[in-house]
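Issue 218. Parser rejects a valid record. Input:
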Amino acid sequence: MQTQQLKTPLAKPELPPARATNVRWRILAILFIVTTINYADRATISIAGPELKKLLNLSAVEMGYVFSAFGWSYVLAQLPGGWLLDRFGSKITYFFSIFLWSLFTLLMGGVGFLTGGAAVAALFCLRLLVGAAEAPSFPGNSRITSAWFPTNERGRAAAIFNSAQYFATVLFAPLMGWLVHSHGWESVFYVMGALGIGMSLVWLKSVHGPRQHPRVNAAELALLEQGGALVDLENGQRGTARIDTWPIIRQLLGSRMLLGVYIGQYCITTLTYFFLTWFPVYLVQERGMTILKAGFVAALPAIAGFLGGILGGLISDRMLQQGASLSVARKTPIVGGMLLAMSMIVCNYVEQDWIVVAVMSLAFFGKGVGALGWAVVSDTSPKEAGGLSGGLFNTFGNTAAITTPIAIGYILDATGSFAGALVFVGANALVAILCYLFVVGDIRRFEFR
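Output the parser choked on:
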C-alpha cells in the first residue's frame, strides 16, 4: 500500500514594504511654477514702467501710486481670501485666483488704446483687480505645504515656493525687457496673461489634497502623518463650515509670537517690493542703463536671491534634523539673511555699475536666505484656521506693497536720488532682525483658548 505524504503549503514570501511615493514634491513643483507666474505678473508693471511713465507723463509720486495699486487691493482681500480657502478648500479657490489675475493682467495691455486720465484710471483699476485676485495665492501655498509636508521638510518646501519670486525675475525680466524693446510695452501684459490662464487649467487637473490624490500611496501618507503634516486639511464638506472670523483674528493678533512674525514680514516684504517696482527704474534712472540692459541686469540679483532662498530652507531643515529647536532653526537664517540684505546701502557710495550689481546680488541673496516667513506660518498656524492665519500674515506683509512704492516715490520727488530709498529699505531689514530676536520668542503651533 502506497502511502501518500501530506504536503503543507509553502508560506508566501513577505513582500518588502512599499517605498513611499514622492507626490508631495510634484505638488511643490506646481506651486513653484504658479508662484513664478504670480510674481512675474506683479513685475510686469515695473518692466513696462519707464515706457508708461513717458507715455502717460507721470511724475515719480504718481508712478509710485500706480505701482502701489496692486498692494491696496491685495492687502484688503487677504482675509476674505483666507476665509475662502478655509471654507471652500485650496484647489478651487486657487484655481479662480490664477485664472482671474491672469485675465486682468492680459487686459492691462488694452490700456494702450486709451489716452490721458482714462488710461491712468484703467491702469490703476486693473492693477487693483490683479491684486484682489492674487490674494489667496500665498495663504494657499502655506495651507497646501502644511497638508503635504512633514515639519522637517517644511522649511525647504516654503523656501522653494517663496524663491519663485526671484526665479520669476531670472526667467521673465530678460524676456519682458526684450518684449518691451521689440514689440512695445503692451506685449508684456498679453504674453504673461495668456500664460497664466493656461496654467490655471493645469492646476485644476493636477492638484489634490493628500487623501484625494490618485498617485499617493499609503507609505507616503504614513510618512506625512507621522511627520506632522495636516493631511486631512482638505477633507470635510466645503461650503457649510461656519468660521468665527473675528474672534479668531482677535486671538491671532493677541499672540506676541504671531504679531512679531507679522511685523517682521512687513519689513522683509519691503525689500521684495523695492525689487518688484522701483529697482528697474533705479537701474535706468540712477545708473543710466537702457530698459533692455536693465531687464538682463535685474536677473543677476534675482539669481542670487533664488539661490539664497533655496539655501535658507536647506539650512533651516538641516538644523532641525541635527537637533536644533524649531525657533533656532527658523530664526538663524532669517537674522543672518537680513544682515546681508542691509548691504544694499553700500550702493550709495560706489560708482561702478558692476560693483552696484554685485552688492545688490549680495543683498538679495541675504533676503532670499531670510525669507522663511511662510515656513514659520506653516509651523505656527492653527489647523482650524490656516487660511485666515496665512491671510493675516500676508495682510501685514503686503502692506509693504502699498507703502514701499509710495514712500520711495516721495523720497525721489524730494531728493531727486535713490540714496534715501536704499537707506529706507535697508532700515526695514534691521527692524525685521529686531522683531525675530526680541519679539517673537519661541516658535510653536498656536492653539486657540
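Fixed in the parser; the record now loads. The chain has a mean pLDDT of 85.
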